[in-house]
Amino acid sequence: MTVVVLLAVAAGLVFAHRLYRTAEISLSGAILSVISSYGVDVIPDRQTVYFGLGSDTPLGLRMTPECTSAFLVLPLIVVGAVMIALRPRIQSRVLFALGIAALAVVIVNQFRVLTLFGLVQWLGVDTGYYWGHTLLGSMVSVFGGAAALVVFVWLATRK
């Protein structure tokens, strides 16, 4: 039964990724509202957060399918389902590991948005966006995703 639920969640992430991205960008907006001294506005229908409103460096950031944590969580869910199908007795460890790894991926993606925000505030829109999105943001995602995978495997397979 757990395998079926996990596969349904995985399918849900694929088919309802727009809803997931809306939640994710809303979380980003909430975090930015707390740390920013300028205005922040979230447009859920467009999965977009605008920050720096009223400053010299306002920017709108859209959470595209390529930038969401959903597609980093998706393989973890599928691998978790396969692990449980092959070894049902490790179900509780796999589910715990999956929860921790999925949370880590979401946190890493929020850190990526915060990195972009900080660099735009520091270096301006053009340079800050380039460094925050293209270079450092990608590195944060790759290393964070890899770390989440390592934690997942370690937690799910340790005795």
From TrEMBL:
<feature type="transmembrane region" description="Helical">
    <location>
        <begin position="94"/>
        <end position="123"/>
    </location>
</feature>
<feature type="transmembrane region" description="Helical">
    <location>
        <begin position="135"/>
        <end position="156"/>
    </location>
</feature>
<keyword id="KW-0472">Membrane</keyword>
<keyword id="KW-0812">Transmembrane</keyword>
<keyword id="KW-1003">Cell membrane</keyword>
<dbReference type="InterPro" id="IPR026392">
    <property type="entry name" value="Exo/Archaeosortase_dom"/>
</dbReference>
<keyword id="KW-1133">Transmembrane helix</keyword>
<feature type="transmembrane region" description="Helical">
    <location>
        <begin position="68"/>
        <end position="87"/>
    </location>
</feature>
<protein>
    <submittedName>
        <fullName>Exosortase P</fullName>
    </submittedName>
</protein>
<keyword id="KW-0378">Hydrolase</keyword>
<keyword id="KW-0645">Protease</keyword>
